[in-house]
Design goal:
With 403 residues, the chain is α/β, with parallel strands linked by helices. The protein has a single domain (2-402), classed as Glycosidases (TIM Barrel). 26% of the residues lie in helices and 9% in strands. It contains eleven helices and eleven strands. Strands 1-3-4-5-6-7-8 form a seven-stranded parallel β-sheet. Strands 2-11 form a two-stranded antiparallel ribbon. Helix 1 packs across helix 2, helix 7 (249-258) runs parallel beside helix 8 and helix 8 (291-303) packs parallel to helix 10. The radius of gyration is 20 Å and the shape is globular. The model is unreliable at 385-397 (pLDDT under 50).
């Protein structure tokens, strides 16, 4: 599974999110060094908010052709489920991200593309102003009523997700299969409120499989008390939080099994949000030509050996530099893009070249993902080593050849 973001706009959509503003620090005094950049927007189509440049250009997340290509690439990389960002019911005030985008309108096109490429879709419930456990009940009801019958929506159970990785995730509705929901920032709502709705007799009981975010050590116990089915780590920076520290994953997985829950460690190729959060240097993790990604995958495989599944952060969160989507080099021409004053304020004087995936090429991270996806599905005895497990080489040719 991979987390997929639906907030991008092309020229007709005013380059939404590609023109992301530089964000303020939550403690203003800690962001003073970048005060002359804060609030200013990037300048697509010449220059975007991210360190990398997408191979397919500045696309729209609502473009059916783009969505089909993305689903095809995921499938070729061994990913079977796109976990799409969802920012709430569009008729509710405040249900949008920091750039004013509500993603619900894109979901029908995503489902159509997923069905065409034999992919499945789960939902990443994002936080919005005034969100409560009771409002999430209405969110889930809305999603189930509007999209629940679509054949591209993943239907599964806690048992299927908690089984060994070689076990199929999909469970038919007549066998108890229900949609899968990841609840981002779930810890902002008290465990007692979640338990009221997730326990037997509650409005959400058996209406979905629900995973909460494990950020702090205490979140694991809170999620168990809240009657969640599982927990996921999401964050890309190893060491940033308790949940995203890879040395904690085996312990989290063991405790989850003891609590009757499922743990999904989230792996990432790196982290770099310095263009939109220039004050966040401590969270930066370089990619090391795929070395960082591989190390997280190895830790994840060890954590889910006895059961569980891996989530990839992310397919296309370009602003945080966690995407595995194919990228190419890009150079901003003199006199184009953001003004030099903004470049200087960001601490990037003279920088005009994007990052890229190096000599391995645009499809590098899809190929790495495919290698580990094959290993994930192998018996535990075959999950070691550096390449595809013995006797389980990737079918077909390279990812690029399949595309």
């Amino acid at each position: 599974m991979t987390f997929m973001y639906l907030w991008y706009g092309d020229e007709a959509g005013n380059y939404t999110h590609w023109n992301h503003a530089v964000l303020p620090h939550w403690r203003p005094i800690d962001g003073l060094a970048f005060k002359h950049a804060t609030g200013r927007r990037f300048a697509p189509p010449e220059e975007i908010h991210a360190p990398f440049w997408p191979r397919r250009g500045l696309y729209s997340s609502s473009d059916p052709v783009v969505l089909e290509e993305q689903m095809r690439e995921m499938r070729a990389a061994g990913i079977g489920v796109a976990v799409v960002s969802w920012w709430g019911r569009p008729d509710v005030p405040g249900t949008h991200d920091s750039q004013g985008v509500n993603t619900d309108a894109v979901v029908p096109a995503v489902l159509a593309a997923a069905a065409k490429e034999n992919m499945r879709v789960a939902f990443h419930l994002e936080p919005y102003e005034g969100r409560t456990a009771a409002s999430v009940v209405k969110d889930v009801e809305y999603i189930r009523n509007r999209y629940g019958a679509h054949r591209a929506v993943l239907r599964t159970t806690r048992a299927a997700l908690g089984a060994r990785p070689s076990t199929p995730l999909e469970v038919p509705s007549d066998e108890g299969g229900v949609p899968l929901f990841f609840v981002y920032d779930s810890y902002h709502i008290p465990a007692e409120d979640w338990a009221l709705h997730l326990n037997a007799g509650g409005a959400l009981h058996r209406k979905g499989v629900f995973f909460g975010l494990v950020l702090r050590h205490q979140d694991q116990g809170d999620l168990a008390r809240g009657a969640f089915d599982g927990l996921y780590s999401y964050f890309a920076t190893n060491g940033f939080s308790f949940g995203s520290t890879t040395t904690h994953w085996r312990g989290i997985a063991t405790k989850a099994r003891e609590d009757g829950m499922v743990f999904s460690p989230s792996v990432a190729p790196g982290y770099d949000d310095r263009r939109i959060r220039p004050w966040n240097l401590r969270a930066w993790r370089p990619r090391a030509s795929g070395g960082y990604y591989s190390s997280m995958w190895r830790a994840a495989l060890a954590a889910v050996r006895e059961g569980g599944f891996v989530t990839v952060t992310s397919w296309n969160e370009f602003g945080e530099g966690t995407q595995i989507e194919p990228c190419i080099p890009h150079t901003v021409k003199d006199g184009e893009g953001i003004p030099n004053s903004m470049r200087d304020a960001l601490g990037e004087p003279g920088k005009r070249k994007s990052e890229d995936y190096g000599e391995a090429g645009p499809f590098h991270y899809l190929a790495v993902t495919r290698t580990f996806a094959i290993r994930l599905a192998a018996p535990p005895s075959e999950q070691g080593g550096g390449g595809p497990p013995r006797g389980r080489a990737a079918p077909g040719g390279t990812v690029k050849e399949e595309l």
